[in-house]
Amino acid sequence: MKNALYIIIPVVLVGAALALFSRTPEVPAAKTQATAVSQNATAKEKVYVALEEEGKIAVIDPRMKKVTAHIDLVEEKEGVLTNYMPHNVQVAPNGQTVWVTANVMENAMQGMAMGKSDPTALDEVIVIDPRSDRIITRIPIGSETHLAHVVVTPDNATAYVTLQNTGAVYAINAKTYAVEKKIALGKDSGPHGLRMSVDGSKAFIALLAGKAIAALDARTGAVKRYPMNSGVVQTAVTRDGKYAFASLYGTKQIARFDTASETTTAIDLPAEAKGPVQLYATPDSQHLFVADQGYYFDQPESNKVYEINIASGALERTITAGKAPHGIVVDKQGIFVYLTNLLSNDVSVIDIAQNKEIARIPVGKMPNGISVWNSERGGTE
Q1: % residues pLDDT > 70 (the chain)
Q2: Are 152 and 174 in contact (CB under 8 A)?
Q3: Is the dihedral of CA 73, 196, 340, 231 positive or negative?
Q4: Cα Rg for the chain, rounded, in angstroms?
Q5: 0.85 exceeded by the pTM?
Q6: pLDDT digits (tens, 9 = 90+) for 142-163
Q7: Beta-carbon-side half-sphere exposure of residue 298 (alpha carbons within 13 Å)
Q8: 75, 173, 234, 269: which one has the fewest Cβ atoms less than 10 Å from its Cβ?
Q9: 43-379 in CATH: which number?
Q10: How do the domains of the chain map onto residue ranges?
């Protein structure tokens, strides 16, 4: 079995029971400071990439199409260094903060002069200032929780983070950084990705082990499940509020959820598909881009991105990218798609008008989550 997340994460296969897999990442060099200042502090736009195997966030200048900084997430306490694996990164809608889910890197300090990492270290949500690319604060969450994804509400008041191993979602005050609510989804639910509705009323949560979309009412905390026929990796929403989408890895399908009627339509991906992971809609709510990764559970790796017509559900085109496309985002102007390639350690830049990849930017080992910051438009939802 090929293992690619470097942490214990349950994933559901069609017709199979819950599987667990883990892998220890390569040992990074010890660092004495937690962050690196961007070489381009005056940049008007940046792309943030979570490098899970390196314990860093890469900062891309999209104009220059290169990495201008790495933000090291290592934490030092009383001479003991603890490294963290960032799985997901998300810029807040107002562009004031960047949020990172960071899990303790097991065995990261073995053989180093500083000795072992702090045995009491907890998985953290880390908040970064995009103006300086320095860490603002660290929010300790728990031990072996596998913090998966984080989103910030449209009013920038609350951050929701999924605890995959714990089966919960935490609501964090985005101003005080205090955990305000703990919402249980069930021990075997395996919440992974999530996205907020445009009006901020609901969070659509991907239940990887629970084989469902969970709709969380942001006001009441009530949760309603919509069963799927496969584990759900990530969700997406359209800006017009009409649809939510879910990637069904095992069946190689996309579920289109009508938010008004609460009905679901299954969209089959091409026969060549290896397993969809993340997905993202264009700002005009016309097109959905799907990262077809494969690779997990002995699936062959893919190098394809699928563009789907949202209204009809028809496949419009297939775009070739790097090895094992994973994280995906569309900029707020709807001009470019940015895509992390898990196994080729780079980010693809896709020009939507040209319908093709126009650049591939080396970023570092095992790039996962990705988000865009703009000094005027804020962050991508």
Answers
A1: 86
A2: yes
A3: positive
A4: 19
A5: yes
A6: 999 999 999 999 999 999 999 9
A7: 3
A8: 173
A9: 2.130.10.10
A10: 43-379
